[in-house]
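Late entry, written up from scratch paper. The run itself happened at the end of the previous shift, but nothing got recorded in the book at the time, so transcribing now.
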Amino acid sequence: MKINQEMDKISTTTITNVQKKLYLLSEFVRQQEDTLKVRESEFVIAFENITKKVMVTYELFIHRSTRIQNEWLKFMVRLDTQLETSLKQSVKNTLLDLGKHIIGDKQRQEIVPIFRVYTVLDNSHANWKILHDPSHEELKSSITTFISKIIDVTRVIPRIEKVFRQNRS
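Output as recorded:
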């Protein structure tokens, strides 16, 4: 039950903290990277709690038959699958939340911009030229890089079975 609670905590975590306000791109990236570090440490703590519970529970089975040991390893594989599912759900929730803030909430038909983009008419050329700061490419590149960082947060969690085998020996 306690392992499941930790798994639920992971799966319901939104890795970012996007608020309904206008951000400068650099401010947004900095604030979200700070949040990613906090969530990463929360994932590590949850994983450590899971592995502690697994090791304590294993003490009941440590001197049992080979058949029971094999069942225990199957249980470890199921835990790994459950943990992977929890991490995927967390990333999914985060990307959906981020998309809602960038694209807008389609259910409420509400579009609330979160990025402050400055547009300037440059009259130094013969033809008028519109300059955006940040540019569309800068915005797209920053968000793409940020999404990669969201996914990287889940990489701090190793497979339970691997950690179990190391601790068991």
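Helices lie at 2-11, 25-58, 66-103, 136-153, 160-168.
(Scratch paper discarded after transcription.)
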